[in-house]
Prior knowledge:
By secondary structure, this protein is of the alpha/beta class. It has helices at 49-56, 66-79, 120-130, 143-158, 199-202, 205-210, 221-237, 292-298, 309-325, 370-379, 390-399, 405-408; strands at 33-42, 63-65, 82-92, 95-104, 108-112, 137-138, 164-171, 178-185, 191-196, 245-246, 250-255, 263-269, 271-272, 278-285, 332-340, 345-353, 359-366, 418-425, 430-437.
Amino acid sequence: MKRHTFILLVGALILCLSSATHAQKDQQPAAKAAKIAAIAVTGTQKFPTDQILAAAGIKTGDVVTAQQVQEAADRLAALGLFSTVNFHYTAKDDGIVLSFELKDAPTFPLSFDNFPWFQDRELADAIRADVGLFTGETPDNGAMIDEITIVLEKLLASKKIKGNVTHQLLAQPAGDAMMMQFRVEGATLRVQSVKFGDSLAAESERLKDRISDVKGQPYSRFAIDVFENEQVRPLYAAKGFLRAEIGPPQPRLIADANTPAEPGVDLLIPIVPGTAYAWKGASWRGNMAFTSTVLDGDFGLKPGDVADGMKIESEWQRIESEYTRHGYLDVRINKQPQFDEAARQVSYNVEIAEGPQYRMGEMIVTGLSIDAEKRLRRIWQMAPGQIFDNGYYETITKELVKPTPAVFGEMPVHYIEFGHFLRPDPDRHTVDVLLDFK
């Protein structure tokens, strides 16, 4: 819940009134008002003061009561852009100095899922013109989302398009970052054709087999982005086109061949392949458990090989997995590509933060019979104090998803659910294994 406070100092109690009014006994007393001599805004890193005051509906020179200042703070809080909105004011001559103390709330980029009638820039410009403090992002709740929805619905109405605009916060198709997706519910648009802006994609048999992921489906930017990232980009990455520019998709409205009264969409996916890079190598820093020679020898690519982006990514994962097999559960691998355009080569500067090496602590088992637990403990291969092998842990927990003779033999063991997690102790550098059977 947002907290709005104000501190009315003793000096503010004797502020000059903008006009003298004597209340009758049967009337409410007039609220004291004062002129704002100055306003300060602190705490926000995203918005300039003049825009914040415009959104609050208050400015220097206004004559206000405490209630009106509170209402201005409430307007800011209602937007959802600030997790905290506090204010206070102090007396100065015949007026007050007002201070707003704000804390920015998380905001997320917008995604327009099925608005093929408009370009993204057109939608953003319309929102920016009508919604105060809009920077291209929105909070996950509050009045700003409602205001954006109204703008989008007005745009739809201007083209006589029926449908309600909804929104939801979800992960972006590429990466873990979140976005606020707006979409039109009730719109019936299907993709009639898909074309690629480069011959490698256009001639790919694998893409031809997967084109039905998009073609014939309801038009959705999210679905198209998933298709680009999971199907198109790997095709180029595998051939060394590590910086290929793919998308954004370009829709064109056409008549639906199956339902002439309804529009369909011809889709073009622009592609600029760029340079096909060769592998030059990696420079390693922070690695103590494994020498650079070992890491180079095990990497799977030799200088001059095609810089297969899919293989490179799998190698990072393999190296991280190898570290965890040796107890380095907190390992972090930061890799920065260095592109040599003249030589058409790519190398990586790799910084490895290995962290502590963990050893096996306790194994805590719940939900099994005494005999079944004894059987499980007999086949468990990591003794307390032994270097923790995360690869072994992952292998055996996969086996335990269902009762298996490989673990329990002919013993009658029944359970429906299996839960497992690790409980590391960063001070002792041990990790307990917790296994729960239900």
